[in-house]
Amino acid sequence: MSDIRLSLPDGNEKRLPAGITGLGIAESIGPRLAKDALAIKLDGRLQDLNLPVDQDASIAILTFDSPEGHEVYWHSTSHLMAHAVKQLFPRAKLAIGPAIEEGFYYDFDLERPFTPEDLEKIEKKMAELAKAATPVTRKNISKADALAFFINRGETYKVELINELPDETISIYEQADFADLCRGPHVPTTSKIKAVKLLSIAGAYWRGSEKNKMLQRIYGISFPAKEKLDEYIARLEEIKRRDHRKLGKDLDLFSISEESGGGLVLWHPRGALIRKTIEDFWRDEHQKNGYDFVYSPHVGRASLWETSGHLSFYRENMYSSMDVEGQEYFVKPMNCPFHIMIYKNKLRSYRDLPLRFAELGTVYRFERSGVLHGLLRVRGFTQDDAHIFVAPEDMETEVVQVIAFVVKMLRTFGFDDFKAYIATKPEKSVGDDSKWEQATQALKVAADKAGLAYELDEGGGAFYGPKIDIKIKDALGRLWQCSTVQFDFNLPERFDMNFIGVDNQAHRPYVIHRALLGSLERFFGMLIEHYAGAFPVWLAPVQAKVLSITDRQLDYAKGVRDKLLAAGIRAEIDTRSEKIGFKIREAAMDKVPYILVVGDKEVEQNAVAVRERGGKDLGAMPLEAFMTGISDLIKNKRTTTELTRG
RNA sequence: GCCACCGUAACUCAGUUGGUAGAGUAGCUGAUUUGUAAUCAGCCUGUCGUGGGUUCGAUUCCCUCCGGUGGCUCCA
Question: What is the mean pLDDT of residues A85-107?
């Protein structure tokens, strides 16, 4: 048999006999690689390790250390789980079981609900099946054979899927008596699956449509090494520890009361103080960036929402109407129509543009009870909204400015890692192609100029215009969507908006919707989780807490507190007759950035003993020095608690 | 809304052949005057989410509704 030439990722070339398997190739490179190998990539196409390679190709051996490796591994684990489920619950019907971003799931149709105990049993069975090192093999069969095969097994969901496949040859994967319809690739043997944890059971509609039957979905995760799984589980615990709902309660930031209504946030004094600090900063920055502030009502006449199109396109998210002297009114789900009303209140000239109307506008949207989630998904929220009315020729300059503004704002809150998504024209849309092209291009240019890497979401735009969404990466590497900048070709038409151009003719302005933080509720929730409740000094509701050691320092401690307050530093005092360790414990649990202990020594030296958040004892320093240091951090919105001394 | 699980004191949670409830924390009172993450003692705390059913008797078993959690769909 003749040799084939394989080029490796490192640029080297290897000659091997044609027909060698992917595993064989991996072995020829090294035993370690062969052990870690999950699949092989041939000219960019993934293939099973136990299949032959017949032609010259550029190859790469896929291991767990890549997103594609994760996918193969998790997908194979989902098969293993389905295998185990079929053994334990032969009546369960298979639906689908893909790999997802973190782990995998498989949907089953089974009369009796799965219980947490079932998960343990399934995990055990999976370990058994993995240990048995059953080979996983691919079989290509005709569509007719595949149909017969799955009909015979009573796998009606698979039959439905096969019927919709265009190909005449169908691939199925088998491991022992288990078989699944699958494109592959898969690991060559079940023994590759080492450490598995089944995480949760959830309902999921067949094919995601609520018209279909509700199936049972089991989520899980797996890793080639137990340590990796342990790390993952530790991460889940960390996520739980940072949960903004828990921290919101512990730190007394906000609550949501059953009595006043789900999805409606009650901001407690400390949370409200943080919000106010964010808002003050937000307003200052908007003023500097040429925005005008506006305020608009919470309700508006039906005719307004008819003109805007909300009643035809957004009604399912709006609360039912109220009757005002025979006129129908609606609570606002968005601010834009009001801002447009302000624009239209007088004739605008090209000299007025761009006009930037900004409002912390509270909107209400109907969300189904099942989707509400702490601060992240609510029914009433305040958008840091603005609408920019701009002449077409200035659009690009404007977008560049907006994106730069977004980035600056987010960086101040301590986020440096962003991911941008530009969504382009969907199938159903308004506005001609040239407009879309121009606006999409402007978004790309703006992202480039701001140094933002972006991905294109082809066809993902709203029907009224393209948009860019910016996601923030938090301390745990999770992505959160906050900022959005959207073009709107629809509203200017609907409201017949105009401005008078240099040519003394009426022209249509562009409307750009934009939110930097998204909603104050969601942003706050995200901030809580990002900082695990330990906010930067400028945001912390209490910035310094003065603790007296005995009653002898009472007056001095009060004096310190008053001086701090006078300097604009949010300070509190604890003069209870408790031991210092106790008071420190409480202040530390409140995540106060600085604890100032005052005893006889400090009184004598006009000093404070500073304990930084995290437990670092800085010892005694003159009160003035502390105040200078903390004021500097606050003024510059630093995210560190490290005082610059001197 | 749908599926699963859950709902006991302000908070975290115990409470099995069905006999009207308990711990820690917090709170309050008092003692203690304390040097870097829990001083001690005493006191208080409940329509056992709601409504109904079964039963002599229900926190416990059954049903309804409300709310929460994890998902599905959607999204700031």
Answer: 90
